């Protein structure tokens, strides 16, 4: 009996399984052909899955938003880095362009002065160093004996006198400025009714100014007078601008006075200079010291001739 019951139950399960399989097949078949709909099933599924779909949609949108934001931030960051790099490059190019334009303008001015000064043979040089201790005393230039420079050659700009070469090397030279207290430049007042001579040296009290010394107390020198080289001594050609009288003071002794000069050259902005390697102007003969005995003889001779 137990065996019969087990067989009967097994047969029922088989038939039920067959019925389910056939039913599913039919449902799939008719659904595929569009002859059967599942309105109730679809509603149940949609109702059950709707919250999950909404949540997944929200999560998906948030992920897309975050990803998009991160990508945009990274893109903007990279673009910002590129723009900053381009700005720095443009600034450097602009600075270099301005510096080249400034140098070109200075060299044009110097070249125009060189072409106009036909009485001189000039060598254009660049200032490459200045003495850190005595800033206003000496400079180094990038021309030397290979370019024809020698000791005691005058150094100028288009504005006026700079100084003279004190040491010449193969490819460089040392220049003593007129602001050096050790310098001595023979000068004269350019004003026709004055023509007072004197010596220009550096001013110890004001390193950016110069002094014209050995001026007689009653000499005709006034503020605003233009001071130029006298040509005596054989180093500096005559007529080079040295400076303008700023003020006049009396010497301690009381017999002489001196003039404080504002130099014609702006030594703070000195970058290019010209060296006079040859001058076609005839320099005045240097003054020879007069011996007292010779002076007396010449005076008697002149008196006899007058007679």
TrEMBL record:
<dbReference type="InterPro" id="IPR042177">
    <property type="entry name" value="Cell/Rod_1"/>
</dbReference>
<keyword id="KW-1133">Transmembrane helix</keyword>
<protein>
    <recommendedName>
        <fullName>Cell shape-determining protein MreC</fullName>
    </recommendedName>
</protein>
<dbReference type="InterPro" id="IPR042175">
    <property type="entry name" value="Cell/Rod_MreC_2"/>
</dbReference>
<dbReference type="InterPro" id="IPR055342">
    <property type="entry name" value="MreC_beta-barrel_core"/>
</dbReference>
<comment type="similarity">
    <text>Belongs to the MreC family.</text>
</comment>
<keyword id="KW-0812">Transmembrane</keyword>
<feature type="coiled-coil region">
    <location>
        <begin position="73"/>
        <end position="110"/>
    </location>
</feature>
<dbReference type="InterPro" id="IPR007221">
    <property type="entry name" value="MreC"/>
</dbReference>
<feature type="domain" description="Rod shape-determining protein MreC beta-barrel core">
    <location>
        <begin position="127"/>
        <end position="276"/>
    </location>
</feature>
<dbReference type="Pfam" id="PF04085">
    <property type="entry name" value="MreC"/>
</dbReference>
<comment type="function">
    <text>Involved in formation and maintenance of cell shape.</text>
</comment>
<keyword id="KW-0472">Membrane</keyword>
<keyword id="KW-0175">Coiled coil</keyword>
<dbReference type="GO" id="GO:0005886">
    <property type="term" value="C:plasma membrane"/>
</dbReference>
<keyword id="KW-0133">Cell shape</keyword>
<feature type="transmembrane region" description="Helical">
    <location>
        <begin position="14"/>
        <end position="32"/>
    </location>
</feature>
<dbReference type="GO" id="GO:0008360">
    <property type="term" value="P:regulation of cell shape"/>
</dbReference>
């Amino acid at each position: 009996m137990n065996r019969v019951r087990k067989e009967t139950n097994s047969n029922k399960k088989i038939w039920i399984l067959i019925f389910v399989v056939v039913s599913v097949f039919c449902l799939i078949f008719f659904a595929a052909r569009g002859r059967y709909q599942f309105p109730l099933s679809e509603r149940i599924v949609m109702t059950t899955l709707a919250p999950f779909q909404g949540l997944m949609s929200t999560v998906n949108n948030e992920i897309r938003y975050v990803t998009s934001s991160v990508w945009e931030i990274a893109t903007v960051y990279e673009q910002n880095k590129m723009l900053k790099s381009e700005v720095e490059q443009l600034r450097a190019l602009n600075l270099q362009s301005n510096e080249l334009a400034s140098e070109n303008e200075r060299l044009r001015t110097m070249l125009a002065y060189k072409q106009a000064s036909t009485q001189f043979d000039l060598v254009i040089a660049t200032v490459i160093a200045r003495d850190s201790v005595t800033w206003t005393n000496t400079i180094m230039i990038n021309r030397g004996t290979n370019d024809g420079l020698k000791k005691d050659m005058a150094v100028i700009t288009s504005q006026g006198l700079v100084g003279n070469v004190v040491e010449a090397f193969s490819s460089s030279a040392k220049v003593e400025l007129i602001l050096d207290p050790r310098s001595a430049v023979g000068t004269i007042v350019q004003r026709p009714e004055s023509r007072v001579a004197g010596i220009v040296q550096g001013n110890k009290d004001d390193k950016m100014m110069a002094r014209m010394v050995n001026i007689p107390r009653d000499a005709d020198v006034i503020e605003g007078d233009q001071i130029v080289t006298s040509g005596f001594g054989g180093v500096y050609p005559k007529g080079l601008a040295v400076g303008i009288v700023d003020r006049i003071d009396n010497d301690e002794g009381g017999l002489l006075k001196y003039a404080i000069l504002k130099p014609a050259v702006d030594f703070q902005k000195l970058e290019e200079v010209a060296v006079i390697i040859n001058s076609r102007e005839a320099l005045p003969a240097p003054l020879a010291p007069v011996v007292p005995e010779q002076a007396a003889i010449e005076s008697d001779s002149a008196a006899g001739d007058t007679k």
